[in-house]
Amino acid sequence: MKSLELIPVHCFLHRIFPIEFYEDTEKLVNDRVFKPRKDSEPLLLTFPLDWESKERVVDRNWRMQLQGWTFLHPIMNIFDNYKKKDDILDFFFDAITDWWRFYGQDPEDIVTTRMPKSYAWYDMSVGFRALAITFFINRITCWQMKISKERSKLLEEVAVKHIRHLLKPIVFSMNNHGLFQSHGLVGLLKTSPHLSESLDSDLEYAIGLVEQLIISQFSDLGVHLEHSPHYHFYALNTLQAQIDSGWYHDRPRIITIAANANNNSKWLLDPFKRPVCVGDSILTVQKDIEFPNTHHGKYIHSKISHSGYSVVRSGWGECPEISSMLFFTGAYHSKSHKHRDCLSFDWFDRGARIICDSGKYGYKSDVYRNYFLSTRAHNSVEIEGFDILTIKPYGSIVENPKEIKQGLFYLKGTLDYPAVKHCREIYFKPGNWVLIKDSLSFARARGFKQWFHLNKGYCLENIMKNFACFRDGNGTKFLIECLDKELNVELHYGDSDNMQGFICEKDYQFMPSFAVGFSGQGKKKEVFTILSLSKNAHDNAKKFLSSNLSINVGESTDSSNEHKKEIILGVENKFFEDCSAIICSDVELSGEKTFQVFSNDILFSFYGSFKENSKKMAVFLPGATSRKHGEYDFQRYSWGRQLVDFDCIFFSDPSIKIDNDLTLGWFQYAEDNYGIEALKNVLDALLKAKKFRQDELLIFGSSGGGFVSLKLSEYFDHALVVAINPQLYLYNYTYSFYKNMLKFCYEGRSPSFIELSYSNRISFCSSAKNRMNPVLILQNIADEKHLNRHFLPLSKSCNIEPVEVHKMDTDLRSKSLHLFLYCDDKLKHAPPNKEDTIHYLRMFCEATFFV
């Protein structure tokens, strides 16, 4: 029975545009222009038409769309709102009359290859046509439009021929093309004049095809199995359109798979909601997909490995500009949209792609299509004489990711054939580095080449042996080093002679980019390669490699001798490998000497003045230094002898290094290794070693040291914290000092990026409530810059009225933050002298009962 229900237009189309999208709908109907892609020249459709497109033999997609009548899609989009519907019908009937004249007598069981001579009966073309025929039958019926007997007969003949063709099992394709074939068949059976005795069984067969295909196209978790995140969304939209037609309401498995596919779609998108460019994928934002606003500040990983994908990424609620993501692929379910990309990966970090999979290119049969399909176009290993597409599909070869320690993830995939074995292990520290271990084993000696493709926009800074350094337009560094010095390195950039060094983000719009290759030969080989976003991250990856995988990376792992030399002439220097060594060596924390310890791979240096009967611990943080002191400046370290009740610790800022010219670093250290967080670990270890509680800790600093002390107050809510004339918002300090810090600690990133991405690092957060001991800020009103740019904005934001210091209460425990003012016209920003500062500290200790 014919359907009298107006089926939504999107149930028939693969591209939906509302009528408002088209500037001139009458011109659209009357001009009859075919332009299937942005890159193609428009074709004026005049009949009779060259349906075989003899002049466009190499453009397979263009030929398929012409035979699929996709030139009708724009007018189908506007049909229901267009007043002159008869003009649209004239266009439709002119087209199918001409097409029928050429193909109406063809056999009904034609089966084509993937690259046929004619696209007239190509699976996708037939599916598109069947849905267009169904649409016009439905609209003519529902809008009760009058057509001539000749047109009515033609429409019935065209519909019946497509039904008979699609009922032949031999023509059906078990891929995404079959989605259109089967759905088009159901539509024709539901709407056409084909009212045979076998209608019910034909419908059951057709709907069964839809269900069978969806089950084969998607995993149980709803991940599309055609090796292309872009086609996942294409197939999902098609599936949703099928469901919205109302023709499959009695098939619950179809509904369940669609729900799972929608839920797991987010794993296939980068933080900007663009499909990862694996297989035939392009960077098209999926606006309809919503990320849940969850997992802020965390890293999460997927559990969809049986689909062939393994993903680690920042939490869904994280801002894209500071997000990380690594997408690892090892999928081969069929040849549909499959590239030679086994064990390739795509790395997104800090708001941009870093290492890129090649992308789709398009379906023109040319040298570029061949390149984008090849192993050399992906971030994998090209193996001599091995072509995965000549071998039976393996399904999935990747495992679900594992978090092996906080913030460090492990991914693995194994390609295992008798003649060729390739196991790839990836260690991923988001925001920092990727360590690749490729274990290769061949039945005979073969040549191999490990390829890595950088995103567009990188410039080469230097290359030396198997090490290369690049920088993008925002100043972000990228370092790559193959640790096997026997391998040869090669570099390509838009190299059309050797067909290497291109990426593609949109159809046919490829662009040059750097490709780095490391090549060798043998039967068995283990290759380690480090990719990192800074020199510090690179060193961190090497240290992880040598410590955890027992690999000699050419550097000494014995740091103790290097750091035994005196920092201050005549003063003993003690070195600890890490913070745990401090805790186990409290006997070493005695007398007056300098100390050095690694925390989070940052070397901290401090002067310690330890007493036998001390009752508390006082930590002093440095402000700006003069480089005449060299790399280390333990400001105020002579004060330790006067504070007889305190173990006193005087830190030097690790951001001040021998190879930079910083004079003020605020303990920022590096973008991928925040110094204040590492400093917190050192203080924790010192407290444990000396058996002090947090409420027996005093933290003090002025100016830049005042900022660091206030940042530490966010970690130590039981400590007493005192800051004099501190910076509170680093971006409000003298710009040249701030810019220089960004240059060396954040590799020159723009101030706007830092303020967006790391506002918590460069400003004081005063939101701590119910502190055991308060935070006390003392500001000289003669220091007008700090008063107006830092102190008063904080006072206003916290709604705290400052108090003159000599009028303060004798009990300051009533609230968490106290703001005090004093006046010294001579010293201005310079802190009070030693006697006055110690006087203030003792006064504050008494007023907070920190005695």
From TrEMBL:
Q: Which SUPFAM superfamilies does the record match to this protein?
A: alpha/beta-Hydrolases, Chondroitin AC/alginate lyase
Q: Does the keyword Signal apply?
A: yes
Alphabetized, the UniProt keywords read: Lyase, Periplasm, Signal
Where does the source fall among the domains of life? Bacteria
Q: Does the keyword Lyase apply?
A: yes
A Gene Ontology term for the protein's cellular component: periplasmic space
Indicate the segments forming the Heparin-sulfate lyase N-terminal domain, all copies.
46-241
An example Pfam family from this entry, by short name, is Hepar_II_III_N
Molecular function as annotated in GO: lyase activity
The name under which this protein is listed is Heparinase II/III N-terminus
What InterPro entries does this protein's entry cite?
AB_hydrolase_fold (IPR029058), Chondroitin_lyas (IPR008929), Hepar_II_III_C (IPR012480), Hepar_II_III_N (IPR031680)
Give the location in the cell: Periplasm
Where is the Heparinase II/III-like C-terminal domain positioned along the sequence? 304-490
